[in-house]
Amino acid sequence: MEKRYYLGIDIGTFSSRGILLDESYSVAADASVPHGMENPQPGYFEHDALQVWWGDFCTLSRRLLTESGIDPRQIACVGASALGTDCLPVDENCEPLRPAILYGIDARASREAEWLTAYYGQERVMQLFGHPICSGDTATKILWIRNNEPEIYARTYKFLTGSSFLAARLTGRYTIDQFLAKGSFRPLYRPDGSVNEEECALYCRPDQIAEALPVNRVIGGVTEKAAAETGLAPGTPVIVGTGDSTAEAISVGLVEPGTAFFQYGSSMYYYYCMDRAVSSYVSPEGNGRLNGSKVFTVPGTHCLGDGTNAAGTLTRWVRDLLYKPELLAEEEGGENAYAVMAREAAEIPCGSEGLMMLPYIYGERSPLQDPRATGMLFGLRGNHGRAHINRAALEAVGYSTLQHLILFEELGLPPKRIITAGGGTKNRTWMQIVCDICGMPIQIPESWQCSAFGDAMLAALGAGALDSFSALRQALPAGTVLQPDETAHRLYASRYPIFRDLYRSNREQMHALSAEA
Fold it and tell me: 339: exposed, middle or buried (C-beta count within 10 Å: 0-12, 13-18, 19+)?
């Protein structure tokens, strides 16, 4: 009997990655491709879905098959993930009608969110959305298209998110992970995953959104057309797929209650797996707010989930602003600029010698839900240099992580375990800072435990090679565990209130300045 393989491909904000796993769930091939992100005006962030999403998928599929040398007919199942809460209108042939409007980082629909809040009233908003309406809600983006691009709206056959688009291009079937549907697409779907026809009317027709199904459900086979473009064999089974953060969370073992997962990518996204549902929560201590929980991808569990607007994008901003010589040297074959930054940050004492940064350079989602929040450097003195700003940025993301843990504790749900993932985990200086700030051990996965790896594992689950999510977790590697430095943690714990209160004390001034931007 021929050996079977499982293919996973993930489309991220600035790059895409594909992994091919063999029957022992070892990596048989691994490939990545970079891409850009369009920012046509302030608050607008887009991808060309055909060129970036589908183009990257086809490139990676062909490259993995070529590098591994396996017969495409040996691929037992395919799983794909992409940015979770995008909005892409397509026609009857699944051709994009405009660039994809990206996840919560895109704040163009703020007026629609304000209008909807007034239209429904706060109580009804909480019933329908489970949280105050924000830029991460896909329904607001659909309404924005309806209000601002009526010609495109009139031609739209389906409103899709990234993974739905990839699955549809592969199979011709329009589906969406139930977790994404019941979370990011509220109120278009009911809690059971069925289409909410009554609420849909304000946004789109019920038939314009995808069918919600379990993430690992096989929805069909690769079409002849898709096979010609991807190099896959016609008829290869394809699962529903999911958002990149969910795929990455699964890849590192987020399948049990009491586990908190933090993904340090372009943004810092978290999922907290629980055995019960919780309502939206506003901290009486001023630590921010949490949206209500949702039924998670793993049967029998619930989760809190949301993301910040900046993590890797914050370090990228620091790199592009202060490390241009190193970036140019890297382009000419020199050392990676981020490696230089990590080394310099490690040489600066904990607390950055009195310098503190707020990471809200693109506004903020969780835990502030304030698109008009702004970044800040506080405590700046003449002895501070670029390395201090560099470390302060890493500490800012660490403080934001701690802020979420404090909110979990206020709910009476302190995490038992923290697992991490994302490109940021390559920077061990950064991860040790996060560990020291949080005061808990954190588990760092193997470098190949990423969204694409999670997609491939979900494909194995869909194909029946794994019989449960528990079996999936048992098949994962142990990774590396970092331990906190208690002295460093005490320092950071004493300074966290300053981090929290800098936003609270300057919120109105931030809003006044952002109105002029």
Answer: middle
Residue 452 near residue 19 (C-beta atoms within 8 A): yes
Q: Could you give the dihedral angle defined by the CA atoms of residues 118, 122, 126 and 127, in that order, rounded to the nearest 10 degrees?
A: -80
Does residue 415 sit in helix, strand or coil?
coil
Which residue type is seen at 289?
Answer: R
pLDDT tens digits, 101-128: 999 889 999 999 999 999 999 999 988 9
pTM over 0.85: no
Quick check: 143 pLDDT over 90?
yes
Q: Given a cut of 70, is residue 141 above it in pLDDT?
A: yes
**Cβ-contact 454, 251 below 8 angstroms:** yes
Backbone angles phi, psi at 135, to 5 degrees: -65, -15
Task: List, in order, residues 6 or more apart from 128 with CB less than 8 Å away.
Answer: 120, 186, 187, 199
User: What residues does 274 pair with on adjacent strands?
Assistant: 302
Angle ∠(377,380,386) on CA atoms, nearest 5 = 80
Q: Please name the residues in contact with 152: beta carbons below 8 A apart, sequence gap of 6 or more.
A: 89, 97, 98, 145
Q: Which domains does the chain have, with CATH numbers?
A: 5-247 (3.30.420.40), 312-405+495-514 (3.30.420.40)
- The more confident residue out of 373 and 294 is 373
Instruction: Say how far apart CA 364 and CA 499 lie, in whole Å.
Output: 14
pLDDT digits (tens, 9 = 90+) for 350-373: 999 999 999 999 999 999 999 999
Distance of CA 112 to the CA centre of its chain: 23
